[in-house]
Amino acid sequence: MKKRIRKIRLIRTGIQLLFFILAPSLFSTAFAGVRSIFDSVSQGTPVEWNSFLDITGILVLVTILFGRHFCGYACAFGSLGDALYETFSWFWIKVLHRKKKPAYPEKAVYFMQKIKYVILATILLACATGTYGKFQGTSPWDAFSMLRAGRLPGASYKVGVLLLVLIMIGMCTQERFFCQFFCPMGAVFAILPIVPGALLKRDRENCPQKCGACKKRCPAHLDIDGDTSRSGECICCHACQAICPKQNIHTGDA
């Protein structure tokens, strides 16, 4: 099982690194497409298709057909979170000699997952009312994009930089901290209808009694296909599939 876990992690890390280097701005570009729709609403003009909406449309279609694999494998901000969490976990266990990786209680995770929907609604309302421009410089992902491009954010982005630092601290303490709790694009993906065959499923009849390894390993504390109403929270990291001792977790009807 350790070999299977290592193999899946290496494949995922390789894909994440590739996207981080070649397409680090996909997240911000996709959300810019969403914002452009509500900007048109505030201006009372028809929505015109643009290059931002090209990326938004592609990622929405991919998510509907295959699940949130963009979040799990291609989002640079999510990959940054994984790197910080794994680095801090190593320090936590190897240096501080703690037995388990840092993680939030299940109830806290469930509660905090709702915050991203409030953030999404707030941003879209600001766009629709034409007030989004007043918040220029407060976006942590804009600050991240600048740093990733080798540019230092100016003084007008000090709030965005502060929020980015706070988020990075959170990334150290909880796996996929930003993706689960604060990502507005993640909220969009989570409410999309996903083709049933793309969802991870578990063959419960073959599961050992009182196992629960998949749910314990899942950063979102999902019970796989048992949490149908929360299936949108799955970021398709496939950690559950790797940890399952009976290899009972799969996608589609296989």
Number of separate domains: 1
**How many E-type strands?**
2
Radius of gyration, taken over Cα atoms and rounded to an integer in Å: 19 Å
- Helix and strand content put the structural class at mainly alpha
Amount of helix: 55-70%
Keywords: 4Fe-4S, Electron transport, Iron, Iron-sulfur, Membrane, Metal-binding, Transmembrane, Transmembrane helix, Transport
Protein name: 4Fe-4S binding protein
InterPro entries: 4Fe4S_Fe-S-bd, 4Fe4S_Fe_S_CS, Electron_Trans/Redox
Organism: Blautia ammoniilytica
Q: How does this structure look, described?
A:
- By secondary structure, this protein is mostly helical.
- It has one domain.
- It is built from 13 helices and 2 strands, in the order αααααααααααβααβ.
- It has helices spanning 2-22, 26-43, 51-66, 69-74, 76-95, 106-112, 115-128, 140-148, 158-173, 177-181, 184-190, 213-217, 239-243; strands spanning 200-202, 249-251.
- A two-stranded antiparallel sheet has the order 1-2.
- Helix 2 (26-43) packs across helix 3, helix 5 (76-95) crosses helix 9 and helix 8 crosses helix 9 (158-173).
- The longest helix is centred in the first third of the chain and has 21 residues, at 2-22.
- It starts with a helix and ends with a strand.
